[in-house]
User: Fold this.
Amino acid sequence: MTELLVGTKKGLFRLEGDPGNGGFEVTARAFAGQSVEYAMRDSRTGRYLASVTSWFYGPKIWVADDPTGEWEQTEGCVLPEGGEEALERIWVIAPGEADGVLYAGGAPGPLFESRDGGLTWALNTPLWEHPTRSDWSPGAGGLCLHTIAPWPGDPKKLLVAISAVGVWLSDDGGETWRHSNTGIVPEYLPEDARDTPIQHCVHDVRRSPSRPERLFMQFHGGVYRSDDAGETWLDVGEGLPSDFGFPVVVDPADPDSAYVIPLIGAEDRTTPGGTVQVWETRDAGASWTPRGDGLPEQDAYLTILREAFDSSGEGDGLELYFGATSGEVFGSADAGASWTQVADHLPPVYSVRTA
Amino acid sequence: MPPMARVTLRAPLSELCGGRTHEIEGATVRDVLFELERAHPSIAGWVLDEQGRIREHVNIFVNGTAGEGRTPVGETDQLHVLPAITGG
Assistant:
């Protein structure tokens, strides 16, 4: 049985099913009518966490031990008083490596840390007050901190990414930060401005659990790989139908395997040619192969957002799931070799996470 | 002593505050809302953002007239906190 948490424009949906045998069904819905940007389950505690933005009352993180029961409002996801900015939304929540630690990232660029399993949160001040902050620029989705990638086994090492600023690294648990975008080419800037250190529209970064110094990145224009923990980046997008897309997923068992969903961008942001395909590399980006057996082949102009692609398991049994803003969720139980539609007619999908 | 306004809330704010109507002190709308949050921390950040601004899609009416943060509030004034009507 696989459990999916699907954040949508109109609430959180839990889907449960057997990916290799039959479909999924909706077994819980919460936050009806509100935008659920992200939802995940902390495997260490079993606790569910959801970032919810009310059109009227702003963004909050909520927690529950049972998604069909009562959700509890958490505290502390606020920006410092006395400034101009207010928290706009929480884009992502990620478990840290230390016991009880979770991180949350949002707009306009804050990183929050919880040390009690997500009940209370505090702003990471060193990043918020970084001397370069006045030069940070938003992407189309806002100035969003959307990627949080801890280092397995080492709570001191942390990578985060902000659009359209770039990658940030910390080696001291978030006490200090340095930007790390060497090798990334922001082709949307004039040629003589592309050596800027911090105007990089990173869309998503995933770290390989089995080789933590290996990371894959979907950039605004290009797919990149790092073999040195994010210090430098190498363009590995050759062979893809588009250099634009949002999410990237890695196979935990194989640091050479990753998956992206190219979109025609940046003006269109739909699946190229009306065909839905997940593209796979098994050789660290040297080559890419489309995986679309079972996915819509024609007249399907889908948009798959940054957080709407996730995996469970590994190797040949790797399960992959992604959702579209048109309300479909697709899944594969065989590492992308074949696909089925596991949900239809949901509200626009913002995020998909395996629980 | 500051004037005491009668504040009327709708769900979900009324649920979070344990009731639909509340007698709250304050000389302005913002003062009243600050005091409401202080008395009911569960709605901290719901009506006012971190900088003390009324959220964009929350409407405040004082005795049936649209108000803003600096609108004076007098003794026995009726203050309604409402989600804005949005859409077409």
Notes: The first strand of chain B starts at residue 4 and ends at 8. Helices of chain B lie at 13-16, 29-39.
